[in-house]
Amino acid sequence: xxxxxxxxxxxxxxxxxxxxxxxxxxxxxxxxxxxxxxxxxxxxxxxxxxxxxxxxxxxxxxxxxxxxxxxxxxxxxxxxxxxxxxxxxxxxxxxxxxxxxxxxxxxxxxxxxxxxxxxxxxxxxxxxxxxxxxxxxxxxxxxxxxxxxxxxxxxxxxxxxxxxxxxxxxxxxxxxxxxxxxxxxxxxxxxxxx
Amino acid sequence: xxxxxxxxxxxxxxxxxxxxxxxxxxxxxxxxxxxxxxxxxxxxxxxxxxxxxxxxxxxxxxxxxxxxxxxxxxxxxxxxxxxxxxxxxxxxxxxxxxxxxxxxxxxxxxxxxxxxxxxxxxxxxxxxxxxxxxxxxxxxxxxxxxxxxxxxxxxxxxxxx
Lengths: 194, 161
Prior knowledge:
heterodimer; A: 194 residues; alpha/beta; Glutaredoxin; two-stranded antiparallel sheet; 5 helices; 7 strands; B: mainly alpha; Helicase, Ruva Protein, domain 3; 2 domains; 7 helices
C-alpha cells in the first residue's frame, strides 16, 4: 500500500510540474535590460524628418517606448488600447517604428535603394497612423532595426517603461491587453510619477 | 540509361537552383567573402539561440532577426571584436536565454544539476531494490522434509489423473 502512495505522489508532482511549466509563456523571456539605462539612439522623427530624438531628450520624464510597424498584425490589436491610453493619461508615449519596409517581407531589399526605402517607410508609417489613429507624442524611425537590437526587440509589438532617470523599469513583449495596462503598467507609472 | 541521366540532371538543377535562390534572397553572400570570418561566424552563431524561432540557433534560423544578428556578428568580427565581446553583446540585449549553454549560477542550478540529481536518485533506488532482493533471496530456505513430502503427494495425485 505504501508503495502506491509513492507512485501517486510522484505522479501528482509530475502533473503539478507540467501544469505550471506548460502554462508559462515561452515568448516571455525576461529582459536583462530591466533596471539598466535605456540604450541611447538618435533617430529621425516621423512627423519632422529634419529632426531627431533620443532618450536623452526625455530625461526627467517617465515615458513609454512602444515598438510598432504597419506590417505587424498584433500591433493592430493593441493599437486601440494605446489610442485610448494617450487620451486619458498624461505620459509621453513614443513610437519606435521598427523596420517598416524591410521587416514587411514583401519587398526585395537587394533591389531597393536606401532612399527609396526611407521614402516608402515614412509614407507607410504616416498612412498607418492616419488610418488607425496616432497615440504617439512622436514616432522615430528605425529603418534597419539596429536600435531594435540594442533594445533586445525580438517580437513586435514591445513596450518599455522608462523612468525619470532614463532607466528601463519594465518591458512587455507582445500586444498590450487592457489587463496588462491596468495591472502592470498603470500602477508602475503612478509609482514612478510620485 | 537516358532516364537515369535525366533524373540526375533534374536533381542537380533543383539543388543548384534552390541554393542560388537562397543566396540571392539575402545580401549575406556579398559579405561572406572571408572564409576565416565565416568560420567564426558559424561557430558563434551555433552557440546562440534565435529568439523568434526559439529552438533554432542563429546559424540555422532564417528569421529576419537571425539574419540581422548574423550581420551584426559579421560587423563585430570585422571590427576585430573577440568571441567573448560578441557573446556579451548578445547577452546584454537578450539575456542568458540566447546562450545554448547558459552559465552555471543560482537560477540555472536546477538546469545544470537536475540531470545529475535524477541520475543519483535512480542509482539510489536501484541499489535499494537490489539490496532488498538479495535479502529476500537469502530468506528463501529449502523445503523441510514434511513440506517436501506434501509436495510429492500433490504431484503424484496430479500424475495419476
